[in-house]
Amino acid sequence: MTAPGNGVIARYHCGMAMNVRLPEELDAQLDRLAREQGVSKHALLIEGVQDVLKKHNRKRMVQEALADVDDRYGDVVARLAET
Question: How far apart are CA 72 and CA 68, in angstroms?
């Protein structure tokens, strides 16, 4: 499969290349899990990064929603707390 117009194999241009240096024990755990699940370590690392980003984005959305609620109803909540 080649990229249109340039004859270069497309799979070599599907993302950014990155070297990851892991402590030996973490690499061994990653290797075991990859073998158990029948996937590559690369696939597990991508899945892990995606999970971290989802968690971060959810946390940010909740914080933004709480800030919006505080902006809109903070005075009401403060008055209710006084009663």
Answer: 6
Give the tokens for residue 53.
Answer: 């980003």
Q: Residue for token digits 């609620």?
A: 69
For 29-45, letters b (16+ CB in 10 Å) and e give ebeeebeeeeeeeeeee
Domain boundaries, the chain: 10-82
Q: Which two three-digit tokens encode residue 19?
A: 């070297």
How far is it, in rounded angstroms, from Cα 47 to Cα 49? 6
> Could you tell me how far CA 24 lies from the centroid of its own chain?
23
| pTM of the predicted structure, to 2 decimals | 0.61
Place of tokens 């990064």: 49
| pLDDT tens for each residue of 11-25 | 555 678 889 999 999
Give every CB contact of residue 3 below 8 A, 6+ residues apart in sequence: 9, 10, 13
Inter-axis angle of helices 41-82 and 24-37, nearest 10: 100
